[in-house]
Design goal:
Elements: H1 2-29, H2 33-38, H3 44-60, H4 66-90, E1 104-105, E2 108-109
Antiparallel strand pairs: 1-2
Helix pairs in contact: 1-3, 1-4, 3-4
Length: 114
């Protein structure tokens, strides 16, 4: 019974690893190539390869192996270091960028009743 619970936990952990790698891969695929150069990070192809390998390795191998852990490290480096630098260089959130101030309403800027 205890082994079944441990296997379920490892299965959930494997899904989390795959989700991190897939999120990083999806995010890197939609970033511009020149943003990687402007942020002084590796190029886009490098990160697509690293994150793609991390996704495949986390799917194929057991979580107790060293390869999914290496893929996890690559995914974490992208999400924690590269992604914020890319967001800062490209000036915004990414896909659903909203122009204007945070105080803008549906019909324009809120000016406090002036």
């Amino acid at each position: 019974m205890l082994m079944l619970g441990f296997a379920g936990f490892l299965g959930l952990l494997k899904i989390v690893l795959m989700a991190l790698a897939a999120f990083g891969l999806f995010d890197a695929a939609f970033r511009r190539e020149d943003a990687f150069r402007a942020a002084d990070k590796q190029n886009k192809i490098f990160w697509l390869i690293i994150l793609g390998i991390a996704l495949v390795v986390s799917y194929l191998f057991s979580i107790l192996s060293i390869l999914p852990i290496a893929g996890l490290i690559g995914s974490i480096v992208y999400i924690v270091d590269v992604r914020p630098a890319l967001r800062q260089v490209s000036g915004g959130r990414g896909w659903g960028r909203r122009r204007g101030s945070s105080s803008d309403g549906p019909y324009g800027p809120y000016n406090g009743g002036r």
